[in-house]
Amino acid sequence: MDKRIAIVGAGWAGCAAAVEGVSAGCHVTLFEASHISGGRARKTFVEGMAVDNGQHILLGAYRQTLRLMRQVGIDIRQAFLNLPLQMRYPPFPAVMDFVTPRWPAPFHLVAGLLKAKGLNREDRLALARFFACCRAIRWDIGEDRPVIRLLEQFRQTPKLYALLWRPLCLAALNTSPEQASASVFLAVLRDSLGRKRTDSDMLVPVTDLSALFPEKALAYCIARKGVVRLGETVRHIAFDGKGWVIDRAEGTRFDAVILATSAAVARSLISDIGDASPLAALEFEPITTCYLKYPSSVRLERPFYALLDYPEKKQWGQFVFDRGHFIRNQEGLLAVIISVSSVVDSGDKTGLAAGLARQLAESFGNPELEKPLWSRVMTEKRATFRCTPGLVRPGCLFDKRGLLLAGDYVAGEYPATLESAVSSGVSAIKVLSELQR
After folding, report:
1. Coil, helix or strand at residue 324
2. Any idea what DSSP says for residue 85?
3. Rounded distance between C-alpha atoms, residue 227 and residue 274, angstroms
4. Which residues of the chain have a pLDDT value below 50?
5. What Cα–Cα distance (Å) separates residue 243 from each residue in 29, 248, 257?
6. Contact 127, 160 (CB under 8 A)
7. Which terminus of the chain faces fewer neighbouring Cβ atoms within 10 Å, N or C?
8. What DSSP letter does each residue of 31-71 carry, written as one string?
9. Residues 232-280 pLDDT 10s
């Protein structure tokens, strides 16, 4: 496929499209407004340390992401801390400890369920019933509905809702179970729990998110004569009858443009070209990450834990990661995650950090955790689209003359994940190839 392609945005979708494009023989030029690649999953710097704008876990089921990582030269075994599927809580209170052995599926789930601490007979039977029913219907519930209705239909217990399904739904869809799409939630469970055991592996990056894939992807493209223009904001695109023009630049035309930006930026760029209403219909949810730095001697027993949040006490944390377990020279740095953080007063960063530190101190029975050396609160205000039942997401092809969309919001089975972003970039190149035929 010999095409001149402009890709706008060097997030995970844009980087995936660039790698696929140069591999297919396209002449790729990639524009990125920032000087740091990665989009909404990128590195930033705090107190001289490279951290992420939000802590991420990947899954073994992320086939397109892992494939492209290998393609650009990343050793998957070295890039991640590979953990078995688990949902483990701190000791105070000791509510649940669920971890699966590395046995073939579905025996790993059965063993994990039987050995789980904190679940009674009713909980175990309800969880077994849930997976049996999902397998029986092949993870397809027909008409979409909120996740909470699905859990009621399969008679899940209040304990399972609080300790398993709610935190999983918030982490996977960044949407509350009362509003989240059950069809999309089941698609995630199907691919991670309904197939091979390795699909359920939890992959924690051992480097910052930009270094994990985007930076390697850009280097891969440059080595294959692609052009990468960081720090260059695209403000206008148009078709002049002969090709696509970026920012009215004379003499530079492209056969196709892939907009791999946020939905808001894409909408502003295409509003004069066609119907942007599918983009306007999307609503978004924020995710907040609070970094708490302690002396290097402070270390949690495990790389991460789920947390019980207590909004009435202003303790909003849902997961905590001890980055010293998997990032070199970041001992004593804890990252606390709050999904759907629109309910949190993120303007009071000092109060928010204090509440989270107090939550950790109480959860782990360690008063030292209440007094971090310093804290930083980061909120990605439009982290993901709100993944509601029956949501109609925009398709990849916007204009048959060669204007395409790529991003985690583009139509697909998954919610807004790194895998959906990467898959959309791969799909954009595939669609372009089909247009050329």
Report:
1. helix
2. S
3. 28
4. none
5. 15, 12, 10
6. yes
7. C
8. EESSSS-BTTS-EEEETTEEEESS---EETT-HHHHHHHHH
9. 999 999 999 999 999 866 668 999 999 999 999 999 999 989 999 999 9
Q: What is the 3-class SS of 210-276, one letter each residue?
A: HHHCHHHHHHHHHHCCCEEEECCCCCCEEECCCCEEECCCCCCEECEEEECCCHHHHHHHHCCCCCC
Write out the two tokens for 157. 């217990």
Q: Parallel, antiparallel, or unpaired for β 304-306 and 284-293?
A: unpaired
Strand partners, 5: 28, 256
**Residues with Cβ < 8 Å from 354, sequence gap 6 or more?**
none
**Hey, what amino acid is at 227?**
V
Distances in whole angstroms, Cα of residue 76 to Cα of each of 68, 71, 205? 11, 11, 10
CA distance 336 to 348: 16
What are 317-358's pLDDT values in tens digits?
Answer: 999 999 999 999 999 999 999 999 998 876 789 999 999 999
Q: pTM to 2 decimals?
A: 0.96
CA distance 261 to 252: 21
